[in-house]
Known about the structure:
- The chain has 167 residues and is α/β, with parallel strands linked by helices.
- It contains seven helices and four strands.
- It has helices spanning 2-13, 38-41, 46-56, 71-75, 91-101, 115-134, 140-144, and strands spanning 29-36, 59-66, 82-85, 105-107.
- Strands 2-1-3-4 form a four-stranded parallel beta sheet, sandwiched between helices.
- Strand 3 (82-85), helix 5 and strand 4 (105-107) form a beta-alpha-beta unit.
- Helix 1 packs parallel to helix 5.
- It is globular, with a radius of gyration of 17 Å.
Amino acid sequence: GASDVFLALTKRFCRSPSAHPANSDDETIRDNLLGMLPLDFGNRGNLTEIPAFLEAQGLKVNANYATGLTIDQLRHAADADWNLVMSRSGFALGTYMQKKFGIPFFCGVPTGDGKRWLEAFAAKRRAQEAEEAAEQPGTPAAEAQTSGAQQPSDGKEILIDHEQVFA
Length: 167
């Protein structure tokens, strides 16, 4: 249900991205938090501590789906540089916004001291930058681009009974 609501609200209120000039002095990454539901994150401070952690790392929360989401945030959600999918309820919106506005998304929740999450997010950003460079014709990255073959599976399976993104 929440996933459908996020999509409907975004389709109804979100404007096209603003034309904001690239400023080399401003390296702040604007992000939308997708799927920050009290049902998934509880009431022990996670709903405020996670955004505060991200802000302390130099990320600017642009829109916080669902905690404290405002119409103004909805209107400017397409101005984000990244969508951070925090739970399954934010996944469809992350996919939609990537297709509609070209905003890449990253799935995961910073836990503990957040170090592993930060490393994984930095790796994803580097991969995204390399992919974008590879799409530019005539660049060395474009010439070196290879197929994205997946690693073979070892045949083992696992079942994790939990919220999908958090798990």
